[in-house]
Amino acid sequence: MNPVIEVINKRRSVRSYEPKPIPRDIINTIIEAGNQAPSQGRMVKGEILFQPWRFVVVEDPEFKQKLVQTTLPIWKKFIESMKETFPEVYEKAMTLYEAMDEPKDMVYYSAPVILFVIGPASYAVSCALACENIMLAALSLGLGSCYVGFGMMVKGNADVVQTLELTDDERIYGPIVLGYPKDIPEARALDQHKSYVEPKIKWI
Ligand SMILES: Cc1cc2nc3c(=O)[nH]c(=O)nc-3n(C[C@H](O)[C@H](O)[C@H](O)COP(=O)(O)O)c2cc1C
Description:
Layout: H1 3-10, H2 24-35, E1 42-44, E2 47-49, E3 54-58, H3 61-85, H4 87-99, E4 113-120, H5 124-140, E5 144-147, H6 158-164, E6 170-179
Antiparallel strand pairs: 1-2, 3-4, 4-6, 5-6
Helix pairs in contact: 1-5, 2-5, 3-4
The protein binds flavin mononucleotide.
């Protein structure tokens, strides 16, 4: 099969990682793939600029711990709120939580790298395209990834905001966690997997 199509079809969110560091050259290759994504032009001081994003690579265990302490209470509150309304989502999260090794990190899954894609709030489409390139490049290099929406909820921690150098008009896309997968979720293998939904297509 065409290798790009194969990677696209194989990509799944990975929520369990080996405690093994990712070599810096691999991280740089992945970031470069993100940087190659298409982007909308924006006028800055009379100039049209592209590539509105910047990247922050988090490897430091202490800073990761700060991120977990900031976002885990938000995750817990959210999951608790699902108990009555979406019991199956709650059960699924709890099963994952119980199966997880200590320390239980339900937001970043103890991944060796947390990659923040940061860009202007009004350039969401461009930044999301960079994120997808990153996740596909990661898989092509033998890594797993997961887009962790909960990880953007760090604005309540001034210390984290300062370290990420987040400005008022910026938002976080991802972050994306990266690492060598412990469990590789089954590919959707097109029409065989229960979670595969046929594309809705109208031909004109
Ligand atoms: C905007 C966005 C936010 C997401 N946030 C989370 C998250 O906080 N935690 C998580 O485990 N997965 C998160 N995901 C991953 C989705 O749950 C996942 O992509 C979806 O269930 C489909 O599964 P697949 O990625 O394996 O194809 C997020 C995905 C997107 C696009």
